[in-house]
Amino acid sequence: MSLDGKVAIVTGSGRGLGLAYAQELARQGAAVVVNDVDEQTAADAVASIEAAGGKAIAVVAPVGPTETAQQLVAAAVESFGRLDILVTNAGVLRDTVLWKMSDDDFDTVINVHLRGTFTCVREAATYMRENEIAGRIICIGSPTGQRGNFGQTNYAAAKAGIVGMVRTWALELKRAGITANAVIPVAATAMTATVPYFAAAVEADAAGEAMPPFFRHDLGFGTSDDVAGLIAYLASDAAAGVTGQAIGIGGDRLQLWSHPEAVATAYRDGGWSYDALAADFTEAVGGQLQTVGERFPPLPDELQR
């Protein structure tokens, strides 16, 4: 198995995408530290891995605090002898438009997604460097962090920040042989289940049926298991040369997201004053203004609800 002898932590892995990641890592031979805030949910996740012949333990704690990160790494080392892989998946949602978003709505999402990713990666990377382990850091992003999404100021900020941190960590950890990548999943989850556009796909998945090809191919929208293979690949020795990347996956589609680059450049002797911008902005760069948010094609008639 590709991860035989490796040890992984997967935060937020009691259910959904995180559980699929933990199960796939175990299927490929890794011992897994499962993490969730609910004790029974975590226990059920561990039981599912053990029932399939894998090895797992649970740490019940919310990510964000440094103490949780320390607890997770300590559990991996004490139970399985080492740590090779960290997948930061834990997250929460507090969706609402900007003018209705409270301080608590913003802080809660930033604390779990952004600070939780930072504290866990800091603890894991410190351990890996000190023990000369060429580890794997895999952080979970979102299309919202790449493109923005109505009602998700907090979530967009956190997920964009995660990708920015990954690029920085790829530079800082390269000498130690530790890779850092972001995965951008598109899959049926509790969040997408509330979106009418995805209803036919979510209903098919819940019934154990294949999703319509329109979703799997055209939209790159699939199941949690469709994402899990990429997590295991990035955790393996085969991906030793892949770092600092944002990689999208869902359904039948695999994507490599570009790093931000200037799409239009213009120069003016003496610089760009207000008057110069008012006169020439449109001609200089205005034709390359970028779109925001995701744009979906119309649903085929037979898939409309």
TrEMBL record:
<feature type="domain" description="Ketoreductase">
    <location>
        <begin position="6"/>
        <end position="194"/>
    </location>
</feature>
<protein>
    <submittedName>
        <fullName>SDR family oxidoreductase</fullName>
    </submittedName>
</protein>
<dbReference type="InterPro" id="IPR057326">
    <property type="entry name" value="KR_dom"/>
</dbReference>
<dbReference type="InterPro" id="IPR036291">
    <property type="entry name" value="NAD(P)-bd_dom_sf"/>
</dbReference>
<dbReference type="Pfam" id="PF00106">
    <property type="entry name" value="adh_short"/>
</dbReference>
<dbReference type="InterPro" id="IPR020904">
    <property type="entry name" value="Sc_DH/Rdtase_CS"/>
</dbReference>
<comment type="similarity">
    <text>Belongs to the short-chain dehydrogenases/reductases (SDR) family.</text>
</comment>
<dbReference type="InterPro" id="IPR002347">
    <property type="entry name" value="SDR_fam"/>
</dbReference>
<keyword id="KW-0560">Oxidoreductase</keyword>
<dbReference type="InterPro" id="IPR051687">
    <property type="entry name" value="Peroxisomal_Beta-Oxidation"/>
</dbReference>
